[in-house]
Write a structure and sequence with these properties.
This protein is of the alpha+beta class and 202 residues long. The protein has one domain. It contains seven helices and seven strands; from the N terminus they run ααβββαβααααβββ. The structure holds zinc ion.
Length: 202
């Protein structure tokens, strides 16, 4: 596989460094362990995941009550804190802190989300995977299956990498008489990836 290393994000460079050349190679627990962080799955109250750091060692706890795709993203998010925010100590991350729809704001949680998104769905593997495929939710689901990612994360990734104008909208229970939780604006398809709008709109 020939790639331009100068175009890789920090998370992609990490994966490349560890020999990842295929989605099946992305073993987040192995990377965490290699970097000195033990990963445990347990029921957590009031947070989705947490990182307890002590020197060069850490324990990443992931809420075992959340669904598998969510657990994987939470692990990637805490791994991002461990690798990128070591000077900040330990983290206790709420559900609303963790998620691929909140990856563009300029704060430490958003940075961890962006890093986590690239750990799970690295562009250097996603782009060739997407070649020749239709841009729709079926493709997003297939991407999620192949990369062990949630449908939400996969749909956002497909929309970001698509050449065609694409947007992703998520609503709580359909669009009638309910709340639109967040959407990716069309500007994203026009080259502005900072247009994700988390939060509740009427
Ligand atoms: Zn966090």
């Amino acid at each position: 596989m020939a790639i331009d290393h100068s175009l890789l994000s920090p998370a992609e460079r990490l994966l490349w460094q560890y020999g990842v050349r295929d989605p099946s190679h992305i073993d987040l627990e192995a990377i965490a362990n290699y970097r000195g962080a033990e990963v445990v799955y347990r029921r957590l109250c009031g947070c989705a995941a947490r990182l307890v750091a002590a020197g060069e060692k850490a324990v990443i706890s992931v809420d075992s009550g959340s669904y598998p795709g969510r657990q994987r993203f939470s692990l990637a998010h805490e791994l991002a804190h461990w690798i990128c925010d070591k000077d900040r100590g330990s983290f206790r991350c709420a559900n609303e802190d963790i998620g691929p729809q909140n990856a563009e704001a300029k704060n430490v949680e958003a940075y961890a989300n962006g890093y986590a998104s690239q750990l799970i769905l690295p562009s250097f593997l996603v782009d060739p995977w997407l070649e020749g495929r239709r841009i729709n939710l079926d493709t997003a689901k297939a991407l999620g299956d192949d990369f062990d990612a949630s449908l939400t994360a996969s749909a956002i990734k497909v929309a970001r990498r698509a050449d065609a104008q694409t947007c992703v909208v998520w609503a709580a229970a359909g669009f009638k008489d309910t709340l639109l939780r967040w959407s990716m604006k069309q500007e994203i398809a026009n080259g502005n990836e900072k247009a994700i709008q988390p939060g509740v709109q009427g």
